[in-house]
Amino acid sequence: MKTTPENRKMEGLLEQKLIEAKALDGAAISRAKALAINEKILLDRAILKLGLLEEDLLLPHLAETLRLPHMAGLSEYVLDEERLATLTAPYCQSKSIAPIQTLEGEALLLVSDPSNRALVKELSFYLDGPLQLVVASTRVVRSLIAAAANAGEKENEETSEERLKADQDLLRQGGADGPVIRFVSEVFDEAVSSGASDIHFEAQEDGLRIRLRRHGVLLVRPVDRSLNTASILARVKVMASMNVSERRLPQDGRITSNIAGRKVDFRVSSVPTSCGESIVARVLDPKALRLGWDKLGFDPETTSKITEIIEQPSGLFLVTGPTGSGKTTTLYTALAHLNQEGRKILTVEDPIEYNLPGVEQVQVHEEIGMTFAKALRSFLRQDPNIIMVGEIRDEETAEIACRAALVGRMVLSTLHTNSPEGAVTRLTDLGVPEYIVKDVLRGVLGQSLEIIDGQTRRLSARLVQSSAH
Hints:
Elements: H1 5-20, H2 26-39, H3 43-50, H4 55-66, E1 70-71, E2 77-79, H5 81-87, H6 89-95, E3 97-102, E4 107-111, H7 117-127, E5 133-136, H8 138-148, H9 161-172, H10 179-193, E6 198-204, E7 207-214, E8 217-221, H11 229-239, E9 251-259, E10 262-273, E11 276-284, H12 293-296, H13 300-310, E12 315-320, H14 327-338, E13 345-349, E14 360-363, H15 372-379, E15 386-389, H16 395-406, E16 410-414, H17 423-429, H18 434-440, E17 441-452, E18 456-465
Parallel strand pairs: 1-5, 4-5, 12-16, 12-17, 13-14, 13-15, 15-16
Antiparallel strand pairs: 2-3, 3-4, 6-7, 6-11, 7-8, 9-10, 10-11, 17-18
Helix pairs in contact: 1-4, 2-3, 8-10, 9-11, 10-11, 15-16
């Protein structure tokens, strides 16, 4: 972007505001300036690209610098359907803009990059008139557009091997900014901004289906039907450092991306299907991890009983519930509660979803023999007070976890059962004698998400304590 005196003045004012507000220090500003000059971008974009400040924290200062209103919520605005049709939803998603109206009928335009003067001129041309801009985060903008998108759009899709090869060659170049790359980037951005826990890319007979799991429910996301299904799947695999040409065997990978000014990881898994491939990316967003019993929404009585159980010197505490119900978040909250200087805490996870300072976390690598059971055996020689097992899913892991609980360790884990009462039966089915289960089991928390009106999330929990304790 060409540097103009007006841009330099704006950047100087923004720098002053950020330093005065103690949002960034001089060293961070210098780093952002160096990147801005090197890549010919403005200071605010460089700050976000480096992850020095999250978008939600930067935009209020940027809006004040540009003397524009800033919008943090959605309550006072509705989409302008007529102007949305003029611009088209895919265009608005790609540019992170949204035409809106106030309750009083005033026409405005939400933008997440208000300093992009070329974009503002382009929008003014398309909409044939001056614009009244309102600054809003990418999360807010994309939420509005996604809500209005037509998820049922179906069109025929071209499936050309020559086009696939060309797309893959383009993707391998890394620096290209083709439509496939932009589209996949938009999907990942939308998943993070909307709070999705997983992204599903599913090859179907009639094309690609993309679904985002929000609050435990899979919701269909519109797909640009002008793009080739295999090219989109190939792009995701390239990002995850997976073998693009291998479509017959399952693969695992990981993506690290900078979204809205913060680092977000994605754990990626692909499996071959009859129609092509299914790729699922688990969103590991540190901001989405809301630790604290008050943030989980448990009632005070349940929270009190849980903390009473996990603060015991030894025993087994289990969390059960369906996929997406927040079992891992509950366990991390318990670990954060227990994390003190006088305690040694070890975890074995597949994968390590979030880093917890002060906790020793171990990643499972079954391909080299590092299984849950092998890690647990080594843990017993590490003198831990508390052990967290990501999931008890086989006989050996169940047996060692219960043995650890017998010899003076508090063990926390998840277990797949239909109800808390089924935990004893599940453990005995895995080969643990019932008398041992009853001796070590301190309590089982069953939790699930209730969806009201298709959107509202409410976490329901039921705690079953062992009658022997």
